[in-house]
Amino acid sequence: MSKQVMNEIEDHVPALRRHAYRLAGSMDRAQDLVQDTLLKAISKKDQFEEGTSLKAWLHRILFNTFISGKRREKTRGPQVDWDDLGDVYGHGSNQMARLQLRDADRVLEELPEQERQAIMLTAVEDVSYQDAADQMCVEIGTVKSRVGRARRKLRASVGRIEAREHASRYVSEAA
């Protein structure tokens, strides 16, 4: 993809935003969809065939990204954006929720760097295993095994946290 084509992508952003808004139904989701589309287009720029319609190519990426998101929602259920959690947990209204969020952050920090990176890419940032493998410069099987180890460690840590919370509730009720 030539530099000229990269510059032409910018000309298509307003139309992409309108299309995304019609699909997503809200401006926030539309902005996220356009951003994901542009990231995919730039990362896959070598797949664009010069002489074909850039507009059609971008809109196809947008639509496929939207459909993939809908499929993900259907199989995984609704997802909560990490940025939105700050509004819920950051104002002191729910101390237990704030403690749980703190504990989750600590558990993630305890993971070895490679496992933390793998779980953050695949579970939090919702990157495919193949894309995570490409970003980490490892084989896809390596990413899968790192995610598996991270999940086992996270489950064990969450179990310890829940046991501690249960014990503290029992002690406070007994007092």
Automatic annotation (TrEMBL):
Organism of provenance: Thalassospira lohafexi
GO molecular function: DNA binding; sigma factor activity
Residue span(s) of domain RNA polymerase sigma-70 region: 9-74
Coiled coil: none
Keyword Transcription regulation: yes
NCBIfam families on file: sigma70-ECF
SUPFAM superfamilies found in the cross-reference section: Sigma2 domain of RNA polymerase sigma factors, Sigma3 and sigma4 domains of RNA polymerase sigma factors
Annotated keywords: DNA-binding, Sigma factor, Transcription, Transcription regulation
Protein's name according to its UniProt entry: RNA polymerase sigma factor
Gene3D superfamilies in the record: 1.10.1740.10, Winged helix-like DNA-binding domain superfamily/Winged helix DNA-binding domain
Single GO biological process annotation from the record: DNA-templated transcription initiation
Family, similarity comment: Belongs to the sigma-70 factor family. ECF subfamily.
InterPro entries referenced in this protein's UniProt entry, alphabetically: RNA_pol_sigma-70-like, RNA_pol_sigma-70_dom, RNA_pol_sigma70_ECF_CS, RNA_pol_sigma70_r2, RNA_pol_sigma70_r4_t2, RNA_pol_sigma_r2, RNA_pol_sigma_r3/r4-like, WH-like_DNA-bd_sf
RNA polymerase sigma factor 70 region 4 type domain mapped to chain residues: 103-154
